[in-house]
Amino acid sequence: MPESINLLPWRQQLITRHQRRFSLVFVMAALMAVGIQWLIAEYLERHTQRLQHGNQQLTAQVTLLDQQLTVAIERQTAAQLQYAHSKQQAQFTGKRTQAARLMRRVAEFVPADLHLESLSLRGESVTMTGNTVRHGPLTELLLRLTSAQDIEQVQLHSVADEQAMQRFAISFVLLNSVVRR
Fold this sequence. Notes:
Order of helices and strands: HEEHEE
Strand order of the largest sheet: 1-2-4-3
Distance between the termini: 150 Å
Helix content: 55-70%
Number of helices: 2
């Protein structure tokens, strides 16, 4: 059998060296690829955790703001109801105050010989009817009403003589504040 003689051993050594270097580079490249993949996976995991943590914080803040908004809406509704109630009370008190003021003013203006039968207050308009024995008390009432600063548009609507009595109807506007003339 013929023997194989390697006349170029340096070539065989070079090929073997290249094969080892290739194997080493291939293993290193594979290890680097696995390492890089692991680093990327770790980075993405941490990034995902940060995003989830941020999302939980935002969700908590939105929940807190929703609760605060609900409380604010309830308070606003309560305040509106209270305002409406206060406004209604003020109107009622204003009407009572105006009626009481009218009664005080009528007591100041009506002379002793004049008798009122009815007194009507609608808004600021006042109508009174009554009777008297003489013209003097009616004239005195008209003079007092026309000279008052908080009374305007005094009108004598009717004077009728009935059985020695004079029936009358007067209307005027009672102002809320005193008007300077």
